């Protein structure tokens, strides 16, 4: 599992873009994790799945609500990562009003979750291998804090907890 002081794993996440801009075409775009994190302060939070109860009702909405405060405290971007494809993450982000606040990043094959050692096996519940629920602060591609929740818990990875961590750094 990733630990404080480790670099983010190499690889790609995928983001659905609704509006084409310079460098980002309409549709799913690959995001090189290390390149996107270089020289930036990023909050990355992971969760088991799009449209699931805690994720949709509390986890993502908390980060959408606190995004401006996180930016004011020095965070350049907030990324939500889940083992879902970019289309699902894009639709979920639209539903939750995440645009401009949280980048909704798909880890469709679970490659990032596996490389980071942050997987959760929900096979018994019909969901397969997913991302654990976590939040990390990443500065210039290096993990500066990492909080991984026990299965079924939602406390240390909340936006409120991360905002306190960012302000204390």
Short précis:
This protein has 169 residues and is α+β, with helices and mostly antiparallel strands. It is built from 5 helices and 9 strands.
How would the blueprint of this fold be written?
Blueprint: E1 12-17, E2 27-32, H1 33-37, E3 41-47, H2 53-72, E4 77-82, H3 86-96, E5 103-106, H4 111-116, E6 119-122, E7 128-131, E8 134-139, E9 142-148, H5 159-168
Helix pairs in contact: 2-5
EC number: 1.11.1.27
InterPro entries: PRX5-like, Redoxin, Thioredoxin-like_sf, Thioredoxin_domain
Keywords: Antioxidant, Oxidoreductase, Peroxidase, Redox-active center
Largest sheet: 7 strands, mixed
Q: What is the number of helical segments per DSSP (H or I, 4+ residues)?
A: 5
| Head-to-tail CA distance between termini | 23 Å
Count of DSSP E strands? 9
Helical coverage, percent range: 25-40%
Domain Thioredoxin: 2-168
Protein name: Glutathione-dependent peroxiredoxin
Function: Thiol-specific peroxidase that catalyzes the reduction of hydrogen peroxide and organic hydroperoxides to water and alcohols, respectively. Plays a role in cell protection against oxidative stress by detoxifying peroxides.
InterPro entries: PRX5-like, Redoxin, Thioredoxin-like_sf, Thioredoxin_domain
């Amino acid at each position: 599992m990733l630990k404080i002081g480790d670099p983010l794993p190499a690889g790609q996440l995928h983001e659905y873009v609704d509006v084409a801009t310079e460098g980002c075409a309409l549709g799913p775009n690959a995001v090189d994790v290390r390149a996107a994190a270089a020289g930036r302060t990023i909050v990355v939070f992971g969760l088991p799945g799009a449209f699931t109860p805690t994720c949709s009702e509390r986890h993502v909405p908390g980060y959408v609500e606190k995004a401006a405060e996180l930016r004011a405290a020095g965070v350049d971007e907030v990324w939500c990562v889940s083992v879902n494809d970019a289309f699902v993450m894009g639709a979920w982000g639209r539903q939750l009003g995440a645009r401009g606040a949280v980048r909704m990043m798909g880890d469709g094959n679970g490659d990032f979750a596996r490389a980071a050692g942050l997987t959760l096996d929900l096979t018994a519940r019909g969901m397969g291998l997913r991302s654990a629920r976590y939040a990390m602060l990443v500065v210039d591609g290096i993990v500066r804090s990492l909080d991984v929740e026990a299965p079924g818990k939602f406390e240390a990875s909340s936006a409120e907890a991360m905002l306190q961590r960012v302000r204390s750094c």
